[in-house]
Amino acid sequence: MPDLIVTILRWALPMACGWIAAQAAKMILFAIQRKPLDLFCSGGMPSTHTSSAIAMVTHIAICEHFTGSTFALALVFGIVTAFDACNVRLQCGRVTEKVNTVIDKVYAPDDPDKPEKLKVIKGHTLPEVIVGALIGVAVGVIYTLIESRIFG
Question: Per residue in 77-108, pLDDT tens?
């Protein structure tokens, strides 16, 4: 059982570090832009989804010398995550905003039949995903270097 925990942590920690790094960058940008800080916000610069996934992909790529089935699976996971962030989630968020606008135009504010507005989950633009991926690569490389120094 301890080996399983170590293995899970070995592959999950780069993801957590990638998420923390991108989220910290996002919080700094929010502060500079004087936007309200929200630690778990969706959307915006950079993509934390992409950063965390690519940090894991980078770590596995280096550890497996860009070969092996684990690397192949991680790479597919990273590509799907980045694609989803800048395509599927982005378009779903835009459609949700339009649906909410239509609800406001069709129903009077006090209409008892007015449906609740949908929660808008924002996706990412391509530049946000690219910056998230770059942060993920940097975090993955740094994490792997630190891990190799600690565990040899």
Answer: 999 988 888 888 778 888 888 888 988 888 88
DSSP letter for each residue of 84-143: IIIIIHHHHHHHHHHHHHHHHHHS-TT-TTPPPPPPP-----HHHHHHHHHHHHHHHHHH
How many whole angstroms separate alpha carbon 109 and alpha carbon 123? 28
| Residue 96 burial (10 A CB sphere; 0-12, 13-18, 19+) | middle
Backbone phi and psi for residue 53, each to the nearest 5 degrees, phi listed first: -65, -45
Q: pLDDT for 12-37, tens place per residue?
A: 889 999 999 998 888 888 788 777 76
CA dihedral in degrees (102, 107, 108, 114; nearest 10)? -120
**pTM for this entry:** 0.80
Q: Report residue 6 as tokens.
A: 């170590």
CA distance linking residue 7 with residue 14, whole number of Å: 12
pLDDT, position 105: 86
CB 108 within 8 A of CB 70: no
- Cα separation, 143 vs 98, whole angstroms: 41
